Structures are given as structure tokens and as C-alpha cells.
Amino acid sequence: MRAIDFAPIARDLRTLMLGTIRDQEPLARHTSFRIGGPARVYLEPSTEEGVVRSLEWLKERGIPYFILGQGTNVLVSDRGVEAVVISTSRGLKEIAIADRRMEAGSGVLLTKLSHLAERSALAGLEFAISIPGTLGGALVMNAGAHGSAMVEIVKTVRVWDPTVGVHQISAEEAEFEYRQSRFQRSPWIALAATMELESGDRERIRQTMQHFMATRKSTQPVGEPNAGSVFKNPKPLFAGQLVESIGAKGWRAGDAEVSSLHANFIINRGQARACDVLQLMRRIRFVIYQRYHVVLRPEVRWIGPGEGGASTTWENLWCEEGVGLTEPCE
Ligand SMILES: Cc1cc2nc3c(=O)[nH]c(=O)nc-3n(C[C@H](O)[C@H](O)[C@H](O)COP(=O)(O)OP(=O)(O)OC[C@H]3O[C@@H](n4cnc5c(N)ncnc54)[C@H](O)[C@@H]3O)c2cc1C
């Protein structure tokens, strides 16, 4: 792996005055797991133009970068990332509503959009009230709950593409599938999206949202640091049921623990490290494969050191025998 000197990169980025820049920023501060080593440089551009200029600047110089929304669907290595981590949380915040169309920047929280839709008596975003994270993360993941998902409401996405710059794509071009989208297979960055909603009855929308929130509270460990469902459902089966069936609730590695409320959630009991979570994931995956011949695929996205500064592939982290950890606990 090529060693990069990030000190001059941070200095040059500062002179561009695109937003806040921090060196060696612990990513544990920016993930719902409260886990993750430092980002070599952490950049919070303050406008969409700042986000695009940062991306162009880094691309031109071949400097590795990584986009972070609210960090509610990521497991970041304890060793952090040798890259510039760009947060969308400040710069991509615009929201506009006209008739039944809502346009929002990728850094806007999904729950905020859900509340705004309710206030405008627009139906279609009720499911999003219980999904933490930004619109950008929800586009990448085709986030969904309570039988609905982003694919049903998204019409267009404004993207930054390293080869052609900023342009607009249709929902079809985003290739949404169950917890999947083209964003996971391409270097595209989502800047903003338009969503089409339905006119609805405000009180009914509010009640549906309340019902979803109550369901969430009673079935998931919402008060403890976690990253939502760890594994995707191997349809038609449910990951949570499989994990529960092997008696994994309460399994522990360091301070990482399989939730006793929902077996597909791993919670951080205090000082859990990424390697602890990985250890639990490997163990669960191995036992389920042995018992059912089902390979569980992670829903949570991995961010760790790797070729070109950051790696997002799980494959070299697995070891079907549960030995030979590549992410050692020291
Ligand atoms: C308690 C809890 C409950 C949850 N429940 C659900 C649920 O019911 N349904 C569900 O689908 N998910 C759920 N999740 C997971 C998570 O909330 C969603 O996946 C969410 O959409 C992630 O958004 P984020 O901004 O936090 O993304 P992040 O975690 O910051 O990023 C996720 C991925 O998207 C990429 N990314 C982020 N923004 C952009 C962008 N603008 N352009 C390109 N790439 C980008 C990142 O690089 C990363 O690979 C839950 C999580 C928690 C903690």
C-alpha cells in the first residue's frame, strides 16, 4: 500500500476554506456503534459546492476519500482509515417542497423528512420515521422498514460521478434492490434526491408514524449504541430468526453483545471494538452456515484500511473456520 503524507493534504484543504477540517478525527464520534479509529483527515464541507470541489480536488490528486452520512450503518476498523473522510452532515442540507414533490440534500436526516412530509400532509415517508441516518445513506442502502423502502418514492438523484461530474440520474438508473443500489457498486456520490409523495390525511399519517415508532421501541434496542440490522435477510428467511434459533442472544465478545431484544442487532456495551463485533459476526455466520447451509451477508458496511487508503470489502475479513483474524484485537 502506498504511504500518503496527509499533513500537506490537510493544510492545502484548509486553504480552500471548504468547511471544517480535523486531523486524526476518531470516527467513533461519528458512528452510531460508537466504534472506529481515526480518519486521517475529516472534512465537513459547508455547502454542496464545497462537497463537489473537495471531491474534484481529491480525485485530481489521487487522494483516497470516503463519504460518511450519519454513520448509522457502518462498522469502522479500530485502525481507522488512511483517507479523507467527507461528511455530508453540514453541506447537503437544502430542502424544498412543491406540491407532492420533495427535494432534499443527501445530508438531511430521514426522520426530518418524515416529519416535514407529515406537516405538509404528504404520505409515503411514514416508514422513514424509524430509520436513523441521512437521505444519502438511505439512497445507498435503499433503506426500508414496515414494508416500504426508498425505491417507492425516489424519482431522481443528483450525483457526482468522478468521470463526468455532477449530473442527474433516474431512480431506474440507481438500480434499487433490497438493501442494495448502484451506489454500492460505483464511485457515485449522492448529492440530492427528489421524492414523489401522495396527498394524505395529516392525522392518519401522524398515527401511522407513532405506531411505527412504538413498534420500533418495543422490538429493537434503540437506547444502546448499534448499527441496526447486522445481516441482510436471506430471503425468504429472516436473519433475526436464524440468529435467535442458534441461541446467540447474549453472546459476547469484549463489550460487543448480541442484543437480547433483537438477535440481528449487536450492541456496544461500552468499550466494544470493531474486532469484537467482527468476532461475533464471524461466529454467528459460521454456526448458521454449519446448521442451515445459509451464508449470511452483512447489511452493515465495513470501513477499514486497505488498498488505496480505505477498504469496504468484507471478503478478506471472513474466515469460514472462525480463525485467522485479519482484524486482530490487540
Ligand atoms: C437503531 C437503528 C435502526 C435501523 N433501522 C433500519 C431500518 O429499519 N431499515 C434500514 O434500511 N436501515 C436501518 N438502519 C441502518 C441505517 O440507519 C440506514 O442504512 C441508513 O440509511 C444509513 O444512513 P447513514 O447516513 O447513517 O449512512 P452511513 O452509515 O453514514 O453510510 C452508509 C453507507 O452509505 C455511504 N454513503 C453515505 N452517504 C452517501 C452519499 N451521499 N453518497 C454516496 N455514498 C454515501 C457510506 O459511504 C456507507 O457506505 C438502522 C440503524 C440503526 C442504528
Strand content: 15-25%
Distance between the termini: 22 Å
- Helix fraction? 25-40%
Mind summarizing the main beta sheet? 5 strands, antiparallel
Structural class: alpha+beta
The hetero molecules present are:
flavin-adenine dinucleotide
Tally of individual domains: 3
Describe the structure.
Strand 6 (95-98) and strand 7 form a beta hairpin. By secondary structure, the protein is α+β, with helices and mostly antiparallel strands. The protein has eight helices and 18 strands. The chain folds into three domains: 6-87, Uridine Diphospho-n-acetylenolpyruvylglucosamine Reductase, domain 2 (2-Layer Sandwich); 95-204, Uridine Diphospho-n-acetylenolpyruvylglucosamine Reductase, domain 3 (2-Layer Sandwich); 239-317, UDP-N-acetylenolpyruvoylglucosamine reductase, C-terminal domain (Uridine Diphospho-n-acetylenolpyruvylglucosamine Reductase, domain 1). The chain has a five-stranded antiparallel sheet. It has a four-stranded mixed sheet with strand order 1-2-5-3. The site of flavin-adenine dinucleotide has 33 residues, from strand 3, helix 4, strand 9 and strand 13.
Descriptive terms for the model:
binds flavin-adenine dinucleotide; 3 domains; 330 residues; Uridine Diphospho-n-acetylenolpyruvylglucosamine Reductase, domain 1; Uridine Diphospho-n-acetylenolpyruvylglucosamine Reductase, domain 3; five-stranded antiparallel beta sheet; four-stranded mixed beta sheet; 8 helices; alpha+beta; Uridine Diphospho-n-acetylenolpyruvylglucosamine Reductase, domain 2; single chain
